[in-house]
Amino acid sequence: MTYKHVKTLDTSKDFILPCRKDNLDAIQQLLPIKNPDFDGSFSTYQLLYGKGGNRIYLIGLGEEKNSAQLENTFQKLAFETQKYWDKSIQVFAEDLNENEIKKAVIGLEMAQYAIGEFKSEKEKTNKTSVAFISTEPLKKVLEEGHYTGETINKIKALVDAPPNIKTPEFLGDWAEQSAKKSDYKCTVLKHKELKKQGFDAVLSVGKGSVNKPVVIITEYTPKTNKKVDIALVGKGITFDSGGLSIKPSTNLHYMKSDMGGAAVVLGVVELVSKLKLNINIVGIVCSAENAVDAESYRPGDVINSYSGKTIEIIDTDAEGRLVLADGLSYAVKNIKPEYLIDLATLTGSVVRTLGYEAAGMFTHNTEMASTMSDIGYKVHERVWQLPMFEEYKSVLHSDIADIRNFSGTPLTGASNAAQFLEFFTEDHKNWMHLDIAGVSFGASPYAKMKSASGYGIQLITEFIKKKASK
Prior knowledge:
Elements: E1 2-6, E2 15-20, E3 45-49, E4 55-62, H1 70-81, E5 88-92, H2 98-110, E6 129-133, H3 139-160, H4 168-182, E7 185-189, H5 191-197, H6 200-206, E8 214-220, E9 230-240, H7 260-275, E10 281-290, E11 302-303, E12 311-312, H8 320-335, E13 339-344, H9 348-354, E14 359-362, H10 366-379, E15 383-385, E16 403-404, H11 413-422, E17 431-435, E18 441-442, E19 451-452, H12 457-468
Parallel strand pairs: 1-6, 2-4, 2-5, 5-6, 9-10, 9-13, 12-16, 13-17, 14-15
Antiparallel strand pairs: 3-4, 7-8, 8-10, 11-12, 14-17, 18-19
Helix pairs in contact: 1-2, 2-3, 3-7, 4-7, 6-8, 7-12, 8-11, 10-12
C-alpha cells in the first residue's frame, strides 16, 4: 500500500469512516442514512453505500481502553474487505489524533502480510493508494506508520519461514541486504571467525547441524559521540529440535519460530535507521540450529563461553540461554552500552505463568522496568515483571563448572533462565531480559495454523524513541 495526505474528503468515492463507541452523532453529516445499525464497538465494521454507489465502511474504534490496539480493527477491516477495494480508498482522519492515525496505518499495512510465501500459486494482491483526510499535516506520522507496519510484516515473514530456508546464514544474508537498503552497518561473523573470537557457547549449540552458526552485528550510529546508547541481543535459534535432550514430536514443526527474539532485533535496527532517530544502537543476533548428530553437544558436557566462564550442560534443550550468554558478554566487553536488552523465546515457564498476553520482564532497574511497562500498555505489547530472588540462584550451582545451564526442577523456570543470563552481564546496571515465548508466535485470526505475531517491534522502538528524545 501507499499512503498520502489529502485535506478534503471526496464523498463520491469509497472511504473508511472511523467511529467511537456510541458516538454516531460525530459523523452523522457523512452518513447516507440516519440510523445505521452500528454502535462503534471495537473491531467491528459495517458497509454502507453512498448516493453514487460508493462504499462507506463504518469502522468501530471502541472505547478509550481500546486505543492501544487500534491497529487491530483496521487490520481486520482491510484483511476482510480489501479485495473489493478499487485502486484507492480514503480514511476520514479529521477526528483522529496522530497516534491513532499511526496505528491505523500500521493495521492497514499489517493486513498486507501474505503468509503463503511458499505456495506454488500465490494470491493476487491489489496495490491500493490510501488517502488520509485531515486538515493537519500528516506526512511524518504516515511515514512512521508505514515503516512500522512494513517492518512488522518483514519479521513475521522471517519467523514464519521454514527452517530448511531460514538457516543462520540466511539470517545473516537478510541483515546484510537490509543494511544496504536502509543505510546502517552489518557484520556477519561466520564459523572461522567465531572460533577465533571465542564464541564457544554459540559454536557448541550449533555443532550438530550442517548449517553452521553465525553472529550478526548490526550498527546504527548517527551521533558524533560514538558511545552506544542501547544494545539489543536476540536469540536466533533457526530450528530447535532440543538436541540430544530431544523434544516430543507434537508441535515440533513450530520450533522454526525459536528465533523470534533475533527477528525483533533485526527489525528494530532497520526501523530505527529508516526513522533516522538520533541515537546510537547496536543489535547482536546469535544464531544457530540446535540439531541431533554424532557431533552434537551432550548433557554432562562442560563448555566454554565468550566471557571465559564455564558452563555445565544439564539439558541441551536449554540452548537459547547459551547463545545469549555469548551475545551479552560480547556486548558488555566490546560495546559497553548504556542500556542492554535481550529478547528471546526462551522458556515454556513464562507461558505457563503469563499465558499469551504478556512477555516476562526481568531487571533490577526499577526506572527501566516502569518505562518499559508503560510503553507496553501504550502499544499493547505488554510486559510483566517477574522476580529474580537471590534464593532462586542456588539451583544453578555446578560442582564442576562456574554455572549450569538448567536447574532440573519444575519451578521458577523463567526466573532461573533470567538469572543464568544475568551471570554473563557483569552486573550491568541497565540490563533487561524479555522472555517473549508466549507472545511472539501463536494462534491468529489471519491464519489456520500458529504464526508470528510481530510482537516487540513497537515496544522496543518506542523505548528507543523515548531515550532518543532525552
